[in-house]
Write a structure and sequence with these properties.
D-Maltodextrin-Binding Protein, domain 2; three-stranded parallel sheet; five-stranded mixed sheet; 2 domains
């Protein structure tokens, strides 16, 4: 009898655990729409265009999850969030996933009830000044006023770096990246500090981008990536492996235009959904990875389309290049 009770209890615990894990996936499937948290507007990462259509490398992250889960990359409700709002929105269930140039830190990963599901952009904090200021090195900025976005790692990084180097500064704290650019252009601050990618985006939004320069100093590591709630391992795996699928596709030379070509390469055939049981591991449709690449593209396609050297943002791949080409982008075994 005791053994039967133990087995019954174990069954209940396993069933209960699975119910918790399956929660977000079930919600998204029932709703028929993914709720994805994005920025209030950082061109190249997540911002609405002139027609109101959201675009950017983070938006492509949202679209990849929708393609994997719902078979349709367009089934996304974008929820614009400030840096201060983003974690509360995820914790409360207002959004299913946060894809909003968010830095992976220990405090965020271990104390907020959240999990980072990977890195979709390796970044670092830098500084932008007007060329007319004549500053060529951040070490020359002692006494300057600095525009900083509230609720970001930028505040703490700057304080740590300035304290270690004996540099004094006056903070001009704002709520959004757009406000930081407005303050910078209005002369309310001498320096604008943020992730280098965001500085490139803000510089591209200026009427005269050549009037500003991004200094060569990089004072931090800023691994940016998607975030989900803890306690939902099934959803965590889905968000993690949708990103990995895009990276693996680029590694394997699979693009949105050639994914329908049958090959003898086992990895390619798995990505294309023609020879794979990966969908069973994630509780998704057999075409989950095919739908991502066909509708959104591989990682390289998304990068070059949104922030690459031929866009107004003009970012090189740098550390976000594949490991086979000198970068640190690396996909675990897709099998």
């Amino acid at each position: 009898m005791k053994q039967l009770l133990k087995l019954s209890l174990a069954s209940v615990l396993v069933a209960g655990s699975f119910a918790v894990q399956a929660g977000t996936l079930a919600d998204v499937l029932d709703r028929g729409e993914l709720h994805c948290g994005v920025t209030t507007g950082v061109t190249g990462f997540s911002a609405p265009d002139s027609t109101g259509t959201w675009t950017g490398i983070d938006v492509d992250g949202c679209r990849s999850v929708a393609a994997a889960v719902l078979g349709d990359a367009s089934k996304v409700k974008y929820v614009p969030l400030t840096a201060k709002e983003r974690f509360t929105a995820l914790q409360s269930g207002e959004i299913d996933v946060l894809y909003r140039n968010t830095t992976w830190t220990m405090q965020r990963d271990a104390s907020l009830g959240l999990n980072f599901a990977g890195v979709n952009y390796y970044d670092g904090q830098g500084f932008m000044v007007m060329k007319s200021l004549g500053v060529t090195d951040a070490m020359e900025m002692s006494g300057a006023s600095v525009c900083i976005q509230a609720g970001t790692t930028t505040e703490l990084n700057l304080a740590d770096w300035a304290g270690a180097n004996g540099i004094s500064y006056d903070s001009v704290v704002v709520e959004t990246s757009a406000q930081s650019l407005d303050g910078f252009l209005a002369g309310r601050c001498d320096v604008l500090t943020s992730d280098v990618s965001q500085l490139a985006s803000l510089r591209a939004a200026m009427d005269d981008p050549d009037a500003a320069v991004i200094l060569g100093n990089v004072i931090s590591k800023e691994p940016l990536g998607p975030v989900v709630r803890q306690g939902d391992d099934e959803w965590f795996n889905i968000v993690k492996w949708t990103l990995i699928a895009m990276i693996q596709a680029e590694e394997s030379g699979v693009t949105s235009s050639n994914i329908d070509t049958v090959t003898t390469n086992p990895t390619i055939e798995r990505i294309a959904g023609r020879a794979s049981q990966t969908h069973e591991y994630l509780h998704l449709n057999p075409s989950w990875s095919y739908d991502i690449i066909k509708q959104v593209g591989n990682y390289g396609e998304s990068f070059e389309r949104n922030i690459g050297v031929n866009t107004p943002i003009g970012l090189s791949r740098g550390p976000n290049q594949l490991w086979t080409k000198g970068g640190i982008l690396y996909a675990p075994a897709f099998r």
